[in-house]
Amino acid sequence: MDLTLILAGVIVFGVGAYVILDGFDLGVGILFPFIPDDAMRDTAINSIAPVWDGNETWLILGGAVLFAAFPVAYAVALSAFYIPVMLLLFALIFRGVAFEFRFKSRRSKHWWSRAFAGGSTLAAFAQGLLLGGVLEGVVAVPGPPGSGIAFEFAGGRFDWLTPFSVITGLGVVGGYALLGATWLNMKTEGGLRDWSRQAARRALFVSLFALATVSVYTPLKFDDIAQRWFADMHWLSLSPVPLATAVVAFSLYRELKAGSHYPPFFYAIALFLLGYIGIGISLWPHILPPALTVWNSAAPPQSQAFVLVALAVTLPMVLIYTVYAYWVFRGKVQPGAGYTH
């Protein structure tokens, strides 16, 4: 049994779960300033109130497993992406504070609404910067002999800030807006649902532009990715991924145009998962290309076994309470349904 592959799979699952689950509630925040009136904004925020904080559990899980099971990658990544990581964390904290204070305030409610939207947008943009930085690669070199450091970061403080990472940042903002709009389309009725359906169509085009940009740019710039997709007829065996993406995007647009309630949200999830699979195909087995792979950045087997035992206890609990929360709060959110402590 290869513990490294199992733990890498746990990180892939945890990051995917975070992107989907926290993605739609960040998307609601991104859309917040554009929702037509305050009553609709109240309904929108009430649709995510029971689940938003639980969704962020998956970010903690992914970070904790990366720290414990792949400490070399964790150390290099934190050195390379310190600024966007801090932007992400402060944005999530600020967003959480704004979420709670908005329900308690009266005179300053509009300011907390802006803070909620700003924190959500910045968090999404920071995640896109991180994605772009990882795809462009990180300069990591072996540590000094006898230091016990396998690899260390040897790049610049702002290597992550490039035109490409800005595009991926905007793409993640658009993608999360798509998830948020399709969530509101599924969870609400009346004017808010009609508005969210229009917003979802606009966000779909932004998401597809960013997806196309990444798909074209990465093989043109990086020979390893080009070889992975196109050498030795690989494109033939991998072609189901872009073909499925095109089918899902068309189906999503069609369902939105038809006024469907539930299918658009699940098509949006499928679109994200297909993009996630494409990134995985491009990067595997690297965690931080070009130097760090899942094997040369992994912890010793004893540490991996300890992490796996902890996950055997905690992961089922997280899954159970996540499924239970969504089951309890299933169905449409009614206007005026309050969120109180």
Automatic annotation (TrEMBL):
<feature type="transmembrane region" description="Helical">
    <location>
        <begin position="204"/>
        <end position="222"/>
    </location>
</feature>
<protein>
    <submittedName>
        <fullName>Cytochrome bd-I ubiquinol oxidase subunit 2 apoprotein</fullName>
    </submittedName>
</protein>
<dbReference type="GO" id="GO:0019646">
    <property type="term" value="P:aerobic electron transport chain"/>
</dbReference>
<dbReference type="Pfam" id="PF02322">
    <property type="entry name" value="Cyt_bd_oxida_II"/>
</dbReference>
<feature type="transmembrane region" description="Helical">
    <location>
        <begin position="234"/>
        <end position="253"/>
    </location>
</feature>
<feature type="transmembrane region" description="Helical">
    <location>
        <begin position="305"/>
        <end position="329"/>
    </location>
</feature>
<dbReference type="GO" id="GO:0005886">
    <property type="term" value="C:plasma membrane"/>
</dbReference>
<keyword id="KW-1003">Cell membrane</keyword>
<keyword id="KW-0812">Transmembrane</keyword>
<keyword id="KW-1133">Transmembrane helix</keyword>
<keyword id="KW-0472">Membrane</keyword>
<feature type="transmembrane region" description="Helical">
    <location>
        <begin position="6"/>
        <end position="35"/>
    </location>
</feature>
<dbReference type="GO" id="GO:0016682">
    <property type="term" value="F:oxidoreductase activity, acting on diphenols and related substances as donors, oxygen as acceptor"/>
</dbReference>
<dbReference type="GO" id="GO:0070069">
    <property type="term" value="C:cytochrome complex"/>
</dbReference>
<feature type="transmembrane region" description="Helical">
    <location>
        <begin position="81"/>
        <end position="103"/>
    </location>
</feature>
<dbReference type="GO" id="GO:0009055">
    <property type="term" value="F:electron transfer activity"/>
</dbReference>
<feature type="transmembrane region" description="Helical">
    <location>
        <begin position="265"/>
        <end position="285"/>
    </location>
</feature>
<feature type="transmembrane region" description="Helical">
    <location>
        <begin position="160"/>
        <end position="184"/>
    </location>
</feature>
<dbReference type="InterPro" id="IPR003317">
    <property type="entry name" value="Cyt-d_oxidase_su2"/>
</dbReference>
<comment type="similarity">
    <text>Belongs to the cytochrome ubiquinol oxidase subunit 2 family.</text>
</comment>
<feature type="transmembrane region" description="Helical">
    <location>
        <begin position="115"/>
        <end position="140"/>
    </location>
</feature>
